[in-house]
């Protein structure tokens, strides 16, 4: 009896967690944050240039077309692994205007050093 009610409790908790998750997601969608999709492959990002607005939140969604890559923009303090078969997201709220370089920080082959791009943050 005890374990049964325990299971029911766990199940109810899971349902609440799921509902909360979807509610939070729906709220996020209402705010319509700009979503920028970026693909990574040997040895480039597409797009290479990302335009953001200072103080305006944006979500960067990364997918890899071949292998493991990294995305690192040290000046804006954001980085993520880009894992094949998975969407990696980064939420950015740029606090300064300017042009900031990003690069792949996971060695991915001969052209790895050229795997770069820029984020342009406008006022
Ligand atoms: Cu690389």
Q: Any chance you could write out the topology, listing elements then pairs?
A:
Elements: H1 2-30, E1 34-41, E2 44-46, E3 49-53, E4 58-64, E5 69-73, E6 78-82, E7 88-92, E8 98-103, E9 116-122
Parallel strand pairs: 1-4, 3-9
Antiparallel strand pairs: 1-2, 4-7, 5-6, 8-9
Can you characterise this structure?
There is one protein chain. The chain is an alpha/beta fold and 123 residues long. It is 24% helix and 41% strand. The strands form 3 sheets. The protein has a 4-stranded mixed beta sheet with strand order 2-1-4-7, with no helix packed on it. The chain binds copper (II) ion. Residues 69, 104, 106-108, 112, 115 line the site of copper (II) ion (CU).
Q: Helix share of residues?
A: 10-25%
Give the percentage of residues in beta strands.
35-45%
Mean pLDDT: 86
Radius of gyration: 19 Å
Short characterization:
With 123 residues, this protein is an alpha/beta fold.
Any descriptors?
123 residues; alpha/beta; three-stranded mixed β-sheet; flat; binds copper (II) ion
């Amino acid at each position: 009896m005890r374990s049964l009610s325990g299971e029911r409790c766990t199940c109810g908790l899971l349902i609440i967690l799921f509902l909360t998750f979807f509610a939070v997601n729906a709220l996020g969608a209402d705010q319509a944050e700009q979503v920028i999709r970026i693909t990574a492959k040997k040895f480039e990002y597409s797009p290479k240039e990302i335009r953001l607005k200072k103080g305006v939140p944006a979500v960067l969604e990364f997918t890899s077309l071949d292998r493991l890559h990294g995305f690192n923009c040290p000046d804006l303090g954001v980085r993520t692994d880009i894992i094949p078969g998975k969407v990696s997201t980064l939420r950015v709220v740029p606090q300064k205007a300017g042009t900031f370089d990003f690069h792949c920080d996971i060695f991915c082959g001969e052209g790895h050093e050229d795997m770069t791009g820029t984020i342009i943050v406008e006022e």
